[in-house]
Amino acid sequence: MQASGPGSNCGGRNEIEREAARLLAKLLSDPKPQDEAELWAWVEADARHAVAFAKAQAAWDAAERLKCAATKIALAVPTDVVGEYHRRRTSQKWWIAAAVAGTMIVIAALILLYGFGATGR
Length: 121
Fold this sequence. Notes:
Layout: H1 13-28, H2 33-45, H3 47-72, H4 78-119
Helix pairs in contact: 1-2, 1-3, 2-3
């Protein structure tokens, strides 16, 4: 079984995919008639070429769809998200500080009450 890692050639697949991408870019950038003829001759020369070109087209179409979808999605502005986070954290900090202060007051009251009460007996 042949390895399909980064070092393997996989029957020239990488070169075929690069050529398919190059020809697709040429086709999408105002091609001349001889460019189109070169593309179709290359695609028809080998079934692997046709598959690689179809994959390149599919990848290009998917990227275009993603780009269009991204423009339609309304995401929250990061500063709004950060601002909300800090508001929550500040609110939590106030509650913690109030709880600690209340606890200290209760402890101080108990010390005063029982501390002085014990010495008075």
